[in-house]
User: Fold this.
Amino acid sequence: MTAWPDRGDTLCRECFTWRDTSTGESDNRCPCCGSHRLVRHPELSHLSIAHLDCDAFYASVEKRDDPALLDKPVIIGGGHRGVVSAACYVARVYGVHSAMPMFKALAACPHAVVIKPNMKKYAAVGAEIREMMRAVTPLVEPLSIDEAFMDLRGTERLHHAPPAETLARLAKRVEDTLGVTVSIGLSYNKFLAKVSSDLDKPRGYHVIGETEAVTFLAQQPVSILWGVGKALRRKLVADGLRTVGDLQGVEERELIRRYGVIGQRLARFSHGRDSRNVETGSAVKSVSNETTFDTDITAIDALRPYLWRLSEEVSGRLKRKGIAGATVTLKLKTKEFRLLSRQQHLGAPTQLADRIYRTADALLAGEVTGRAFRLIGVGVSDLGDASHADPQDLAEPDFEQRRKIETAIDMVRAKLGEAAITKGRGLRAGRMKQSPSDKPRVEDEN
Amino acid sequence: MKITIDRAALLKPLAHVQSVVERRNTIPILANVLLRAADGQLSLTATDMDMDVVEAVACAVDQPGETTVPAHTLYEIVRKLPDGAEVGLTVSSDANRMAIRAGRSNFSLPTLPVEEFPALSGDTLATNFVLSAADAKTLIDRTRFAISTEETRYYLNGIYLHETKAGDMSVLRAVATDGHRLARVQMPLPEGAAGMPAVIVPRKAVQEIRKLIDETDGDVQVGLSENKLRFAFGGTVLTTKLIDGTFPDYERVIPAANDKTLRVTCGDFKKAVDRVATISTEKSRSVKLALDNGTLTLSANSPENGQATEEVDVDYTASAIEIGFNSRYLIDIADQIDDGNKAVFLMADAASPTIVTDEGDDGALYVLMPMRV
Assistant:
C-alpha cells in the first residue's frame, strides 16, 4: 500500500534503530543501544492502523503523583459499595480487576491502597495524551479517556518514518513527559489493532500482520471478536462455535442466516477483515454520570437530590462541549443488582440541567415502587450541536424564565467557581449522607 | 345465554368494541368482550381499564344470560363468516364455553366469569350537555394532531376541554400542545355545560370517540365529572377516565403583539410546502419562509438531498422576514383550513411563536414555534 521503502523487520523502541533480521541474524538486543525492547514483524514497516491504550491509567496517574505508592497495590474506586475503576499491576497480581465490586477487591487484596477517583485530573492527563496523538495524525478516534484508534496512513513523509516508528516515539514521548505508560497495538485494521494492544501489556507493543492474522485468530475464543458479549458467546458455543477457527469454517451467508446482521461481522472479523474507518467525529455518543449510594435508597425524595446533582454535572459537560441531546436516559440499579434503564425522547435537544432533571424525574416517578436502589444515573444521548437546543416550549410557560435562571447561575459559577451558587435541591444529596434520617422536604419547583 | 343474530348486525358493534381491547394483555379478562342478552337486545362491552365502550344491538334472545369471550377471536370469526349468515351464540350449561354456529361452521370459545369483568360505566355524571356530531368532530380534528406523545409529560397526552370566556361569550374550548405547536378551538358553550370541570381527555379515548362519531350525523350526549367523560349516541356509550394532571397555562404562550401579517390561500400554500419539503432532511423536516413585499419564497436545503425553492403570491406588506418551520407541522395546521380559505400568519421574528388562523373560521387558532434554519 505504501511506496515507502522497507526499513527492515525489527525496530528498537529505545533508540528507534531499524534492522533487518530476516536473513537469519536474530540478536535479541539492539546492536546500537543494547536494549531488549525490540519489536519484530515482517510487515512492521507497512502497517499503519494502531490502537493505543494507557496501562492501568488512573492508578498510573496516582503513582506518578505519589512515588510512595510505586510498589504498593493501588485500587482506584469509590467507597466499599462501589466498583473498581482501575487497579494497578501490583493489585492485579492479587486478582483485582476493573469493574469488580469493591468489597470483593478488598477481600482479595486487603492491604491495597484505595484512592477515590479524581476524574478531573485523569481527564487532564487523557487530554494531553490525545493532543500528542493528534500531533502525529489528525485521524484519532478516542474510545474513552485513555484509549484511542489512530490511522497513520500517509504520515511517513511528514515524520520521515514508518508508522511503527512514529508510534514507538509517541509512546516514549508520553512516558517521558507525562509519566504514564501506554501499550500499542499495530495492525492493518481497527479490530486487529485493538486485539493487538491487549496482547502485550503493560508498556507493550504488539503487531498483527496480514500473513498470520487468520491463523492467529483461529486459535482465539469467539469472545475476542468485537461485538461478541456474554449472550452471543453462549449462543455461539451452544451452536458448536467455540473458537474463531470454528467460525472461519462457516460461510458468511450461513452466519447471516443464523445470527442476522451480526453474522456478517462475525464472518468478516473471523477472517481478520474490518473495513471500518478511524472516525474522528464519533467520539461522543452520550454524556452520562451515575453514583452508587453508601446505603440503599427507597424514597423518591431521597433519590432526587442525587438526580439533580448528576443532571447538573451532565449538563455542565454538554455546555462545555457545546452540544445538546434529545434523549434522556435514567438508569437505576436495584438492591438485587438488577439494572433498569428508562428513556424519554424529547421534542427538541437540550443541554439544560433543569430539563434533564425534570425528564429523568418523571421517569423516576414511574420506577419508585417501594424497592431499594443502590445506584442512580442519568444520561443524555442523540447528541448534536447546541444551536437548535432548548427552544421556547409552548407547553411550559415558565421554561424561558427557568432557562434564563440557569444561564445566570452558569455565569456566576464561571466567574466565582462551582460552589459559589447552587440550588437547594442539590444540597440535600450531601446532607443526606450525613443524616439519613433527615425528613424530605417539598421540592423547590424553580 | 342463547341468541340468534344477523352477522352484519353483530359485526358492527363488535368492530367498535374490539378496537378498545389492547392486543397484548397481561390480565386475561381484559382481552374479553362482555356479552349480555336480555329483552330482545345483545349488549357488548369492552374495556382497557381506562375506558370502556358499550354497544347494544337488537337480536332474537332465546334465553337471556351473560358471558365473556376473547374479543379479537370473536371479531375475527364473525368477520370471516359469509355475508348474510345467521349467527347463533350459545353458552354451555357449565358456563365454560360459548358455541358459535353459522351455517356449517362451528366454533367453541373459552369463557371467563362475568364477575371478573371490571365495570367502569354506570354511575351518573354531574355535567350533561349535547353536542352535534359535527361540532364534536371539529373539537377533535382541529386539536388532536398537536397532542404530545411524550410520556414524561403525561398531562399533555390528551385534549384539554374546558369552559372559558371569549370576550363576553362563554365558550367550550379544546386545546392540545406538544410544546412545538398548540391548537385551540372554541365554540359557544352548549346548554348545560356551564360550571363543567376542566378535564384532559386521553389520546386513546379521543381516537376511539373520533372513529365512532364518524358513523353518526345526529347529536352526541356528553356527560362529564372530575374524573370521567362519557360520549353516548345511537346504541353506543363510551366512558373514559381522564388524565389526572394540570394542563399548562397555555394562554401565556400565545403572543399578543405579533405585528407581521401574512395572508395566503391555504391550498396553494400547503401544496407548495409539501413540494419543497421533499428536499428537507428526514431529521429536521425544515423549510424556510422568506417574505418580502407580496412574495413568499419557500426553500429547503440539505447537503445530501439538494435544494428547492418555490415562490407563492401572498398578501404581505410588513418588513422582510426569514423564518423556518418544521414542514410537517405547517402541513398539519394547513390541513385544518379549507383549501380555498386564507390562512393568516401573525409573526414577530424568527425565534418567537407564530400564530396561524383560518380567515373563514374564527373558532380555531394555532401557535407554532419556528425552527432555526
Chain A has three domains: 1-211, 214-270, 286-426. The first strand of chain A starts at residue 10 and ends at 12.
